[in-house]
């Protein structure tokens, strides 16, 4: 019972009761705001209209009228539909073949292509369902009147019953292999977590060991301390992705050498954010406790588990403040989708600019801390300095006296 009372007293006087109650409530509120709907509505799709007829435009209107899809772009031809998935703007490409209207009028079958990004199965389920519903509806409208007619041959009868045949291609992860989804996500998460645990206490460790003031004589020293974390975390992540591909059968299509570039920027930017977030921590334990401010939002908003299409636009914009979200975007596009680095130059430039801003913020924070410590040192020195200076004063007896000391008469010369 003594142990129970002792631990109870410790917890009551700590912040744990508040944390244990408040943090689950924050999680409930946060996820409720991030996931306003349990399904993806108005997912952006591209339609390749090779027929360009009145019926094909009517078919496109029916696709756009679906609550699950939004026709964001219509093109007449493409020889590389994979390119529409590189920047994560679209979730599907729908291809309407040439001769769609002619086959419709002749009660013949037409094959509509549905190309899906299968890097996240959750994001395409509703699109597949919506297209199946549209094809069934079109077939019913065509087949019922046709079957009432006479003199129909076997080919026409088959076309009337199956006027729209939906051909589905699931790209990038057709077998729904967990190596490319869940295992990949948690591999990156553990690497991210280890990076946070070790880099968050960086400044607090210097402060506790009384080395922070000397380190701030050159504010760039803090950025130099970021480099070892960048080296080891980049090597660890690249090595683990290689192991997952070689021994686990995972998919990784990017050039490993070129993929190091976004990973280096991600690690460097993450450590800079950790330094800024944990700068004021009094000791390393408090600094590590701030990991929840970095780890959970970054992992959730990255789309590693939940599709980013589920999030409102504001949540996606907030996610861009975390370098881990950028890294996972590069991993999906270059690693899983096989996009060349040239396709990702806009995102790479944005990430480079953001990491540069974070670096300048770290330097500015170091300069501010240096000035603050200098003022504290000057104040302490003035408090420990000498009292008021000694001032000579004349005494009433014609002699000299020191202020605060008894007067001493001057000896007159001896007269002869």
From TrEMBL:
Topology with respect to the bilayer: Multi-pass membrane protein
Keywords from the UniProt entry: Cell membrane, Membrane, Transmembrane, Transmembrane helix
InterPro entries (alphabetical): ABC-2_transporter_component, ABC2_TM
Pfam families attached to this UniProt entry: ABC2_membrane_3
Domain ABC-2 type transporter transmembrane, chain residue ranges per copy: 18-363
Region: Disordered, residue numbers: 378-416
Subcellular compartments: Cell membrane
TM region positions: 16-34, 183-202, 222-244, 256-281, 287-307, 351-368
First-listed, main subcellular location of the protein, grouped into a coarse class: membrane
Protein name per the record: Multidrug ABC transporter permease
């Amino acid at each position: 019972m003594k142990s129970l009372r002792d631990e109870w007293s410790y917890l009551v006087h700590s912040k744990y009761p508040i944390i244990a109650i408040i943090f689950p409530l924050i999680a409930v509120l946060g996820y409720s705001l991030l996931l306003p709907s349990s399904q993806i509505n108005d997912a952006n799709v591209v339609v390749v209209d090779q027929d360009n007829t009145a019926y094909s435009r009517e078919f496109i209107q029916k696709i756009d009228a679906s609550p699950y899809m939004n026709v964001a772009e219509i093109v007449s031809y493409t020889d590389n539909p994979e390119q529409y998935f590189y920047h994560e703007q679209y979730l599907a490409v729908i291809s309407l073949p040439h001769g769609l209207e002619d086959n419709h009028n002749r009660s013949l079958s037409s094959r509509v292509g549905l190309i899906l990004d299968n890097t996240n199965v959750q994001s395409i389920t509703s699109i597949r369902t919506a297209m199946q519903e549209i094809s069934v509806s079109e077939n019913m409208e065509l087949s019922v009147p046709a079957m009432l007619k006479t003199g129909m041959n076997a080919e026409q009868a088959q076309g009337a019953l199956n006027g729209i045949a939906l051909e589905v291609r699931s790209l990038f992860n057709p077998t729904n292999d967990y190596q490319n989804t869940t295992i990949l996500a948690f591999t990156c998460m553990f690497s991210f977590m280890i990076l946070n645990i070790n880099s968050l206490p960086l400044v607090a460790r210097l402060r506790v060991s009384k080395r922070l003031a000397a380190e701030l004589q050159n504010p760039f020293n803090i950025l130099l301390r970021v480099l070892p974390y960048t080296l080891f975390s980049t090597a660890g992540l690249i090595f683990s992705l290689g192991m997952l591909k070689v021994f686990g059968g995972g998919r990784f299509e990017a050039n490993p050498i070129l993929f190091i570039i976004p990973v280096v920027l991600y690690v460097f930017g993450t450590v800079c954010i950790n330094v800024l977030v944990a700068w004021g921590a009094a000791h390393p334990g408090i600094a590590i406790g701030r990991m929840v401010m970095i780890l959970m939002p970054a992992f959730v908003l990255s789309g590693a588990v939940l599709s980013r299409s589920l999030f409102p636009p504001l949540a996606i914009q907030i996610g861009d403040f975390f370098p881990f979200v950028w890294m996972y975007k590069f991993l999906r596009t270059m690693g899983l989708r096989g996009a060349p680095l040239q396709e990702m130059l806009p995102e790479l430039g944005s990430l480079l600019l953001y990491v540069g801003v974070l670096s300048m913020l770290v330097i500015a924070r170091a300069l501010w801390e240096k000035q603050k410590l200098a003022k504290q040192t000057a104040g302490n020195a003035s408090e420990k300095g000498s009292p008021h200076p000694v001032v000579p004063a004349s005494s009433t007896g014609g002699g000299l006296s020191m202020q605060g000391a008894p007067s001493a008469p001057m000896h007159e010369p001896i007269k002869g």
